Amino acid sequence: MAISLSAVLLLGIILVVMIRAGQIKGGPSVVPILFGFFLASSGLAPSIERALNSIAQAINDISF
């Protein structure tokens, strides 16, 4: 849960920065928001979450 909440927050901040920088307009930004919303309610959501969790775990296991 913490990873998905962090990812949503990070991606939301990136989207706001892109809108404010003029790289993406407010109207077209609705498309990726709706895409993410509908993707989250699809059957692919558990697979995507597992993949992101495994990537986060691999990054966490890196020791310097």
Model description:
The protein is mostly helical. The protein is 73% helix and 0% strand. The chain is built from 3 helices and no strands. The mean pLDDT is 81.
Span between termini: 26 Å
Shape by Cα distribution: flat
Give the % helix: over 70%
By DSSP (H or I, 4+ residues per run), the number of helices equals: 3
What is the number of beta strands? 0
Average pLDDT works out at 81
Strand share of the residues? under 5%
SSE string: HHH
| Subunit arrangement of the protein | single chain
Radius of gyration: 14 Å
What structural category do the secondary elements indicate? mainly alpha
Q: Characterize the main sheet.
A: none
Low-pLDDT residue intervals, each spanning 5 or more residues: none
Write the layout of secondary structure elements.
Blueprint: H1 2-21, H2 30-40, H3 45-60
Please outline what is shown here:
The protein is mostly helical and 64 residues long. It has helices at residues 2-21, 30-40, 45-60.
Characteristic key phrases:
64 residues; mainly alpha; single chain; 73% helix; 3 helices
